[in-house]
Write a structure and sequence with these properties.
heterodimer, A: alpha/beta, Rossmann fold, 27% strand, globular, B: alpha+beta, four-stranded antiparallel sheet
Chain lengths: 233, 389
């Protein structure tokens, strides 16, 4: 993904999304415009049904808009075919989920290696890179552990390592602290901040938690599919 | 398209190992039935083919099909003996055996149910023509007497045919003086006695067949042509192996078709079982599917992963079913060959071809049972899957 320092990494224009229920179309996002600069840490907040998760899914390329454009690094991902979008996600997006979404039958090491299977790296290169990233999140000694042998915080660290391993410019995080206690949640947020500050990653995070949102550099508030407030832009 | 690692597929099967094993056992039962049916068919074929010798020729009445339907008159047998190209034994005897073949009814051991047994009248040369036949116990019958020898399967499977016992048929008492070991050929299911004594006892004036040994392999065509061109002889010659292969064809084909049809019907149950297992796997791993798709794995990779699981399940079922079927090779069984109307003892025979066909059948069940759930898994929308977490 090429990035021009002068233009934003994410450029959203006239974005609308509706879901069909029988004959009716239920609007979720309405004519939304938004930019996110490279290296920003953006928190999306809003009540349930405000459209924040839908917006995150659209930015991550796992859903298609009804209308509008989503340019990420100069590529309008709304125009990509399903296969192209899959390849684009593999190369450019790292995912962090509320419930970690690790594959329970794979060890921490294998979970982290998973996105690298979609690259041309050799088995040895994949293993080395996964070990390195597990070290970055402080879990080098847990590489052979399976998810059920790890605490919630450790599982989320593995998930962050998995999001990081293919070196994407963009990381999307959906309630990354939603299943963690306060102390562990703080540690995870610290780790995400570190990714932005030390590695220049761009993070878009959905959260209900104002304390978590406060760790972001910019807070975007959505209500009924419309961007109503921005802090720190 | 990049796929998911085999370790992922294997570990998913291992994680739900009880379900995996039960589903595989269902498939194994079907493969067991499928393989044993083919083994039974092959056993019949192998037994009857082993009955014939490569350089023996059997001569029957034209269109007779089986020995019991055939008649070869004494004068015809005499003419056959004069044909060129027939081998002689060490004693200088022409290697020709005139043989009456008759069915008698005997009660089976255990059940007491009657079944047909082939009685063959033969001679010392007849024995020489079948080198696979040896005397296992006792001795050979003496020419010109009412002595008989019983094939090992007849001695073991029927009442009153044990060594030293007297058997009554054709209005005479026949003393069993020996038990034949015919090397698992069809002769194990026969009773042999002196050919001329049999003709008299059964009040026949014609033999059923004439069996001869060729002096050389090319001799068959000469004999076949000579019989065809002689208007006095309404006879046909067949290589003995071809004749016995034909004897097995109807029964072997019937068993194969009936058994395959049964196995296919049973397989519906196993396929439904596999389908339920795989649908349950898809339902339990919806969030996992969404995660894999979000990470960039394409629909095809997800389809292949689930289809791979189903195929591995089927392969496990195939191996278990084949292992069970393989144990059947130790079992002796007998049935009536409805081409000869006589009881035939045989063993289940597992060949590489049957093993391959059985594994292919198992994998076909895996594909049929796994494809729809795998296709469904691949069609799921990522965002909906992730909401299921």
């Amino acid at each position: 993904m090429s990035t021009d320092p002068a233009s934003p990494l994410i450029r959203i224009r006239g974005l609308s999304k509706g879901y069909r229920r029988g004959d009716q179309v239920i609007p979720v996002l309405l004519d939304l415009d938004m930019d996110v600069a490279a290296g920003e840490f953006v928190a999306l907040m809003g009540p349930s049904g405000s459209g924040k998760s839908t917006l995150l899914n659209l930015i991550a390329g796992i859903d298609k808009p009804s209308s509008g454009t989503i340019e990420i690094g100069g590529v309008d991902i709304a125009e990509l075919s399903e296969g192209e979008l899959a390849d684009w996600r593999a190369a450019n997006v790292g995912f962090v989920f509320q419930f970690y979404n690790l594959l329970p039958v794979l060890s921490a090491q294998d979970n982290v290696e998973l996105p690298l299977l979609l690259t041309g790296l050799s088995s040895r290169q994949r293993a080395e890179r996964a070990r390195l990233v597990l070290g970055l999140v402080g879990l080098a000694d847990r590489a052979d552990h399976y998810p059920n042998e790890l605490s919630g915080g450790q599982q989320q660290r593995v998930a962050i390592a998995r999001a990081l391993v293919s070196d994407p410019l963009l990381i999307v995080a959906d309630e990354p602290t939603g299943d963690l206690d306060r102390v562990t949640g703080e540690e995870i947020l610290g780790l995400l901040e570190q990714l932005v500050v030390e590695m220049g990653k761009t993070i878009v995070m959905v959260t209900h938690d104002p304390k978590a949102a406060a760790r972001a550099r910019r807070l975007v508030h959505l209500e009924k599919g419309v961007l109503v407030d921005e802090v720190g832009a | 398209m990049k796929g998911l690692p085999l370790a992922y597929i294997l570990r998913n099967l291992w994680v739900r190992r009880v379900t995996t094993l039960l589903t595989a056992l269902g498939m194994a039962l079907v493969v067991y039935v499928f393989a044993t049916v083919l083994m039974m068919s092959e056993g019949i074929r192998a037994t009857l083919v082993a009955t014939g010798q490569a350089d023996n020729v059997i001569i029957l009445r034209k269109g007779a099909g089986a020995e019991i339907n055939s008649a070869v008159g004494r004068d015809q047998a005499g003419t056959i003996e004069t044909l060129p190209g027939i081998a002689s034994d060490a004693l200088g005897r022409t290697m020709v055996s005139r043989e009456p073949v008759v069915l008698i009814n005997l009660p089976k051991r255990g059940s007491g149910k009657p079944s047909n047994v082939t009685v063959r009248g033969t001679s010392a040369v007849g024995g020489e023509l079948r080198p696979q036949v040896r005397i296992g116990e006792g001795r050979m019958f003496r020419p010109g007497t009412s002595e008989i020898v019983a094939g090992s399967a007849v001695a073991a499977g029927f009442q009153g045919v044990g060594l030293g016992q007297t058997l009554r048929f054709a209005g005479r008492d026949w003393l069993v003086v020996g038990v034949l070991d015919a090397g698992r050929s069809g002769f194990d299911s026969e009773i042999w006695g002196d050919g001329e004594q049999m003709l008299q006892a059964f009040r026949r004036n014609a033999y059923s067949t004439v069996v001869l040994r060729l002096a050389d392999a090319e001799g068959f065509e000469h004999i076949r042509k000579a019989l065809e061109e002689d208007p006095r002889l309404s006879l046909e010659a067949k290589p003995e192996r071809v004749f016995y292969a034909e004897q097995s064809e109807a029964l072997a084909t019937f068993i194969r078709l009936l058994g395959t049809a049964l196995a296919v019907i049973f397989s519906i149950g196993a396929v439904v079982g596999a389908m339920i297992t795989m649908f349950a796997a898809v339902a339990a791993r919806t969030a996992e599917i969404g995660t894999l798709r979000a990470l960039g794995f394409r629909r095809g990779a997800v389809l292949l992963a689930f289809l791979g699981e189903s195929l591995l399940l089927a392969a496990l079922g195939g191996v278990l079913g084949l292992a069970g079927a393989s144990a059947m090779q130790a079992v002796d069984i007998s049935t009536t060959n409805f081409q000869t109307f006589a009881e035939l003892a045989f063993r289940f025979v597992l060949t590489p071809s049957i093993a391959l066909q059985s594994m292919a059948f198992a994998l076909a069940m895996g594909v049929v049972g796994g494809f729809i759930p795998a296709w469904r898994a691949a069609r799921l929308e990522i965002a909906e899957c992730l909401r299921a977490a």
